[in-house]
User: Fold these one by one.
Assistant:
Number 1:
Amino acid sequence: MRVFLISVSFLLATSFQVHAQEDVVLLSNYLKGLNNIQAKFVQHTFDGKGTLLQTQKGSLHLKRPNKFRWKSQSPFEQLLLSNGETLWQYDEDLEQVSIQKLNQRLSVTPALLLTGSVDTISQEYDVYGEALGEEFHFVLIPKGEETLFDRLRLEFDGEKLLSRMIIKDEVGQKTIINLRDVQKDQNLTDAFFTFDVPSGIDVIRAQ
C-alpha cells in the first residue's frame, strides 16, 4: 500500500508539472502577441476590506523589448515611461521626474512582464491557466521575495487580446485594470518611449 501511494503521488506530481509547463508555454504565446499594442484603461484600487481607494483612467502603449508608456490622465496626471534601459516617472502636478536604471526582472512590475522576454517566465513565476469559454485566464505567483505584488491575474479575450489585469499585494490591496480599445501591431517608434525633461522640472536621479 505504501509503494502504491508513493507511486500515485509521483504520478500526480509529474502530471502537475506537465500541466504547469503547458500553461507557461501557452502564456508565452499569448504574450508574444502583445508586441506593439495600445489601449485605454480604467484602474480601480481597493484596500484589504474591499473599500474603493482610487479610480484612475489613462492610456498605455507597449513595445517589445521592455518599452512601455503608461499614462494616467485622471484624477491626476502621471507618466511611467521606459525605453528599455531607463525608467522615468513624471508627476506633472508635482513638477518633478525621477530617473533610474530599468530593473529588467519580469516580477518587478506587470509592465515588464508584458514587454520583457517570455523565455524567463518559468524562472520568476508559477503559472496556472484556466479556460473560461472563449477566454483564457492566467494566474501568476512570483517565486522571489523582491516583488511589488503577491499575485497577478491576466485575462485574455477570445481574440487573444489582454482585457483585464488583477493585482494583489501582500497587505491584501487589490488593483483591477480594465482595458478597452486594444489595438495591436501599431507603428510605435522608439522615440515615443523616450522622455525629454521639460524646463523648470525637478529631476531626481535614483542611485
Number 2:
Amino acid sequence: MLSIETKFIATPGKGEVSALLMRPKDATHLVVVGHGASTNMRHATLAAIAEALADEKIATFRYNFPYSENGRGRDSADVCVETVRSASRAARETAPDLVLLAGGYSFGGRMTSTAQSQEPLDDVKGLVFFSFPLHLAGRLDTKRAEHLEQIDIPMLFLSGTRDELAVLELLEPVVAKLGKHATLHKIDTANHSYKVLKKMRTSQEDVFAEMARVLRSWVTENRI
C-alpha cells in the first residue's frame, strides 16, 4: 500500500489544503473523496471507506476543504466547489494512470455533484455518493437534488435504509428520475453515519466492505 500526504492549492484566496493518497498495489481506479460538513479528511468514516476500497484495488484521494484545514467557519459553496475542482486536478496529477472518480461522504458528495452539474470535472468518469444528504433532518424536501439532473455521467448512491438525511420515500424517486445515469444501493439498517442495527440486519457483511464490493461491481457493469 502506498500512502502519501500532500498539499494543493484549494483556491487562490484560501491557499493550500492537505490531502492523503492511499493507493493499493494493482489499483485500477482512484476516487476523490470529500469529507462531511463538520469533519475532515482524517475522520473515521473516511478512513474506513478508504481502507475498504483499497481491498478492492481502488485508490482514494482524501482532502480537506479550507475551513476544515484552518479550523474556521464553513466556506461559501463557491469556495467548496472550487476546492472540489482543485482536488480532482491534484488527484489526476498524483495518479495519472488510474480511472478517475469523484464524490465524497455527505457534504463532500453534494459539493462534488454541484461542481459537476455546473461544469464537468476534468477527466472524471463517474460520481460516488456516500450518504448523499438529500435534505436536513426532519425537513423532507428534494431541493438539494435538483442539480443532479444536469449530470450526464454515471452516479452511484450508497445510502442507508435508516438515513435520516435521505429518507427512502424521497431518495428512491429522485434516483429513478435520473434514469440510466444513476444507481442506488441501499445499505440495510444503516443510518447516515453507516451505523447499523446488528440484530435486525440480514447480512453479516461489514458495511464498508459491502460498499466497496458494490463500487467495484458498479465500475465493471458500467465499463468505467
Number 3:
Amino acid sequence: MTNFKEGDRVQIVVREQTNGDIKERSYYPYMGGLRGTIYRLYSDGRAAVQIDLDSLPETVRTRHTEAQERMKNRWIDALSEEARSRLTPEEREFHLNYVLLVRVQDLQPEGKRSRSAAKKETTSPTQTVKPETTAQARATPPAKNASTSSAKAPSAQEADAPKRKTLSDLEKAEEEFLKSRQHSRR
C-alpha cells in the first residue's frame, strides 16, 4: 500500500461496488477513474480528493460549470454597485472546487493502473457513467468531515499540519493586503 500525503496526484481505482460501500457510502462506480489531488488526509483512513474537472464525464462537468456560474452571478448580484466596480479581474474569478471523500485504499498514484482496472478495461472498453448518480455534487466539504476524526488522537500527519492563525495574524495579513491593493491602484 502506498503512503500518500497531502498534495499527491492520485486516481480513484475502478472496481465493483460492494454492500459495505453502499452501507458506508464510501465508493460509487462513477468515482472510478477520476483524477485529482489529495486535499486532506484523515486519521480514519479517508482522504478528501480535489477532482480535476477535465477528468469528469462531460455531463457532470457541464452541470458543475453551470452551478459555478449560477453561484458566481448570485455572489456578484449581492454586492453593491460600488463594491462591484472596485473588484479587480482576479477578484471577479470564482472557482468551485469538486471534492470527494474517498477511502485511501481506493486511491492509486496517478498514471498507475491496478490489475483489476486493467482486467476490467479489456473486458468492457467503454465504461458507462450514469449522470443520475450525482452524489459527488453534494459531497460534504472536508471541514465538516474533520470533526469526525477530531475525537481520535491526532496522527503524525495532523501533528505536522500548520498551526491555526490567531486573530492578530489574520488582522495583520488583512492590513498588508489592503496596503498592497492601495499601492497597486496608484
